[in-house]
Amino acid sequence: MSSSHVWSAYSARAEEYTEALGHMAATAREDRELITRWARGVQGRILDLGCGPGHWTAYLHDLGLKIEGVDPVERFIKIAREQHPHVIYRQGSLTSLSAGSYGAVLAWYSLIHIPPQDLQGTLTSLRDSLKPQGNLLVGFFAGDRIEKFPHGVAPAYYWPPQTLASLLERSGFSILDVEHRRIPDARDHGSISCRTIPRPLQRMRTQAKR
Question: Domain 3-208 falls in which CATH fold?
Answer without folding.
Answer: Rossmann fold (3.40.50)
